[in-house]
Amino acid sequence: MIKSSYSSIQVHREAICNCQLCPLGNTRNKFVYGDGNPNADVMFVGEAPGQREDEQGVPFVGRAGELLDKILAAIQFSRQDIFIANILKCRPPNNRDPLPEEMELCFPYLKEQVAIIKPKIICALGRVAGQALLSTTTPLGKLRGKWHEYESVPLMLTYHPAALLRFPSYKRDTWNDMKMLKAKYDSF
Predict the structure, then answer these.
(1) What residues contact residue 74 under an 8 Å CB cut-off, 6+ apart?
(2) How much of the chain is helix, strand and coil, in % rounded to 5?
(3) Which of 73, 90, 109, 138 is 20 to 30 A from residue 132's alpha carbon, by CA?
């Protein structure tokens, strides 16, 4: 596990909330740092804020966020139990996929978040988050359903809640992934 040079999530948030490393800093409404329990054992990581997140400054607040809340409840978690962050802290225009250079500039922020929170489990939500955390281009379908590691932390990949809204057939696989995550959590 990496060590953080920041004493707390709040200190880190304040240090980076005015980031202008890439052009997204000029187009965002709100910097979306992350949300939840700063001492969480489980951390969920998405790709980037959407329109609602950009308006409110909180990750996963739209329809995908509502579905994530239901998924969490199904495995006896709430947002107060976990921490949620994204690879990018600013919304890409028109909700496009993050560009490689944007992810490269923003990824150190997520790395610091992991170092500060020290989760026992990380769950990557979607292809972009999973591939970024594993430094791979392997398709999500080949990565999900088994355990990986990020900085010595067990890492589970599953479908992004927005994908579940578009492709309900992914729900069964996601449920199986969440059962694996819960079983690992219960084993600690």
Answers:
(1) 175, 178
(2) 45, 15, 40
(3) 73
Task: Note the Cα 122 to chain centre separation in Å.
Answer: 8
Share of the chain above pLDDT 90, in %: 96
Give the strand pairing for 121-125 and 153-158.
parallel
Burial code (b: 16+ CB inside 10 Å, e: under 16) for 60-69 equals bbbebbebbb
pLDDT reported for residue 1: 66
Q: For residue 135, what are the contacts with CB-CB under 8 A and spacing of at least 6?
A: none
- Say which residues have a Cβ less than 8 Å from residue 39's Cβ, sequence separation at least 6: 117
Q: Which domains does the chain have, with CATH numbers?
A: 9-187 (3.40.470.10)
